[in-house]
Amino acid sequence: MTGLLQDHSRLSIVSLLASSSVGELPFTSIREKTGLTAGNLSSHLRTLENAGLVHTTKQFQGRRPLTTIELTPAGRTALDQAISAMEEFVRAHRNQ
């Protein structure tokens, strides 16, 4: 599962969601913070959702559509594993 997070964009998305104080972020906020196009972000989110790492909710706020993305427990675990793998890599190569 952590292999999915080797992609910089997907790692950025999951990291943003993990750092959100409310547990979810609007699609537009993720797009702005990552600098991804709407189409590219949608593609990455579909990959993450198919893997069970994020959950997408589509609703309306007044008359405007609102899509929010939430990190799942499996997503949190995958992020923690990816961070551990990066830390291990750094430790292993620091003294070479």
UniProtKB/TrEMBL annotation:
Residues 1-96 form the HTH arsR-type domain. SMART domains: HTH_ARSR. This is Transcriptional regulator. The lineage of its organism: Bacteria, Pseudomonadati, Spirochaetota, Spirochaetia, Spirochaetales. InterPro entries: ArsR-like_HTH, HTH_ArsR_DNA-bd_dom, WH-like_DNA-bd_sf, WH_DNA-bd_dom, WH_DNA-bd_sf. GO terms for molecular function: DNA-binding transcription factor activity. It holds the Pfam family HTH_34.
